[in-house]
Protein 1
Amino acid sequence: MRQPERVVVAESGAMAREAAALVDRAIRTQPDLVLALPTGNTPVGMYTELVRLHRETGTDWGGVTVFNLDEYLGVAPDHPESYAAYMQQHLYRHVNVPPSRQHIPNGLADDPDREVARYEAAIEAAGGVDLAVLGIGTNGHIGFNEPAQELIAPTHVATLTEETWQRNFPHLVEAHRADQLSARPFRQAYTMGVGSILQARHIILLASGSDKRAAIARAFQGPVTTQVPASLLQLHPRVTLVLDEAAA
Ligand code: PGA
């Protein structure tokens, strides 16, 4: 089995630059690259750096196709907490990915089963993912594939664990405790499954900060287990970990 390549840098700014350099180089090498891209806090600096490289060195995103890893169910693309809005804010407003090549599950789709089938078919029609960039949850999740007895391979609707929900929506936790939320928003999301992720030809996983250290150790130094979804990446022949020292 091949060990993942590990790139360990001093801090999160260097992680962002390293990750962006890998993505930027992949686009320059293969102008029709198909990317799977993450959201969350970890990749924000990578997007900033990719935008800078686009502006200063002219990296052309005109032939690039992007699939997002996930999106919240029941959330409109223009909702400020949607991942569609996140991608607009951090990437699409600043680089020239044609809108027809910006793919993300439709949080408002009428029929979730049809939506997941549509998304998988779109990935296949694009020729599969060349490069997937992932974050990792403190519980070892990738996308919204949460620790569980069983994992679902293709794109599907997932339920966030309490831990993930509280990390992603700290501003809603108080209202929830005080029973002020009638229905809890953002508890379900579309996510690419571990199967769709493992089909990517190259996977880059980013982690920064000491709160990710245990998850990285469990994922890459422990057994392969569905209880640590990122550990399934041990089965992939080409994984690059870009970590800062605190996470490594
Ligand atoms: P974070 O999320 O970057 O906001 O820590 C990572 C993840 O949950 O995959």
Protein 2
Amino acid sequence: MPTRREVMVGAVGLAGAGFAGGIFAAAPARSAVPTLTIQPARARIVEEVTEALVSTRPDGPPPVIRLKQNESYTVDVVNGHGAPTAMHWHGLRVPHAMDGVPYLTQPPIRAGERFRYTFSSEDAGTYWYHPHCLTMDQMARGLTGVLIVDEAEDPGFDADISLNLRDFRLDGDGQFMDLWTARGAARGGTLGNVMTANWATTAEHTAPSGGLARVRIAATDVTRIYRLWFDGAPGQIIAMDGHPLRTPVPWPSEGAPLLLSPGQRVDLAVLMPAEEGSAFTVKARAPGSPRTLAAVRAEGANVGRTLSDFVELPANPVPEPDLENAQLEEFVFGWSPQDAAPRYGLCGTLGYTFWSINREPYQGDAAEDLTPLAVLKLGQSYVLRLRNESPNAHPVHLHGLTFRPIRSNKREVLGNWTDTALLGRGETLDVAVLASNPGDWAFHCHIIEHQKTGLAGVIRVE
Ligand code: C2O
Ligand code: CU
């Protein structure tokens, strides 16, 4: 298997951990390539300091990564953590070898090793990154970060704020409880009990008074389907799942919140309050009463912008599927056959198999001669019919390709480009895609307990 892996056993360890100023600090001496060192972390999320977090710095969330549309980006991911790992750039249409899925696209990065990722993105917008090995453990402990691809032309906001939404499952002393339960995994998933944005129970940010702020929200939790709305300032939704809208998405309210499922993102243009100190807030439905996940406070003199100053973002060059000539591929999401045993892999098993796609639970990370769920022809358009025969919702994610929902038996679909579509209970959702990127692409539910107990597979484009 050809590999671009660069092994530096022993030489790296935690050497990158002490730098100041985030990932753009130079990697140890010999190169200027930014480094993400996966490592144990501790941080004050609740009153007590939480230990046994996993991040790319010792004391806080993984940083926002920024790259520029169409410009090559290189990053070294260093395993300073011990357990095997790999990094996936969720939503980016990268070449297969850079997609970060162990066994499928690269070997796992073992303790002390580094892997150099190089890619560029034709698509601007809000994406994110997370490991694709031992995901339940590493993601639930914090290893999820926002990745921004800046438009080739600056869209001219006065502020740009990223909110990484995720839960932690903490006990009364602020330490991790079981990250998941078998009961949860076999149903809707195990919810966290501490909702956070940027690892804070209420994230505090500022933006110029009367300014136009871009607020990017990424749902990186392993389970929670967020129900969000906004307060304190007017605005509009300008992008979903990275891509500028083709069809408007209504501004949500408490009565009609925006569903944002694990893996999804939303970008807002917000007209900040003119009065210094007033705040725009992000609210989420939560047990009991609504939670304020983030507040963006107006700061300084009123810059006097209006919402009409917002210039629409240019469309990304996602190849348009040809619906007239599309072929149909069907996928059924449901329980696993009763006799299916969990399959061992270096990248972790939860010890159960509850779920399947097309009645075939995932063959395991290290499966040899893995059978794809479907083989798509490069350059051909497809309708992927996603049918949910389970009573639980599944955010269905496809790597390497961008698709758009075209119809559902349950609701009106808006048809915006995405990489993660929420499939509701009893729903059959058709999505259209042009098979434009060759490779074996991971295809799975983004509720990690579902993914890791069978709800995963591979779609081949060749
Ligand atoms: Cu966000 Cu296969 O992942
Ligand atoms: Cu699921």
Protein 3
Amino acid sequence: MRRPRLAVFISGRGSNLAVLLELRSVLDVVLVVSSKPNAPGLIRARRAGVRTQVLEKKVDWPALDALLRSHQIELIVLAGFMKIVPEEFVLSWREKIINLHPSLLPKFPGLNAIEQAFAAQEEIGVTLHWVNEILDGGKIIAQRKVINKRSLSRYSLAQAEFLVHVSEHRLMREVFSKCKTISIWS
Ligand code: GRF
């Protein structure tokens, strides 16, 4: 089976990007787009021989759209991408953008999701979902609980964050390893 051509959008470490790069037998990371010029994830991408694109502060979304199309991208994965994707871009890539979010959506959308859940003493977890026009509001693909309410008092915020990251990597591996053809996504 042909491997789907992915673009991965990052802003930081790129540890979730690393998971996708390891899955090269089932998917093809063709392009890594970063909102930050010094994102360590860019180094991972370059080491893996993947083309990178750093965005300007004021993103030229139509130019990015054209770049993605020129690379025949079939799926975009937002893996720690800290910019809001505008509605026009989302509509132009309808059902082709997946986001990783560190909470059990629909609870705690937006920024600082782990801190918010921790402060509210609510269950901690991770979600992979389709991106639509509503922030962190698209259809859920897969979700994993990381710490339940009763056990939460045993963990510090830093420990909870660590467990969330481990769980994100596991969820990414689990879901994307089934990525033989993009038709399974729809
Ligand atoms: C992840 O926790 C993701 O959920 C959040 O940013 C982090 C990205 O980590 N939005 P990395 O860059 O993949 O290491």
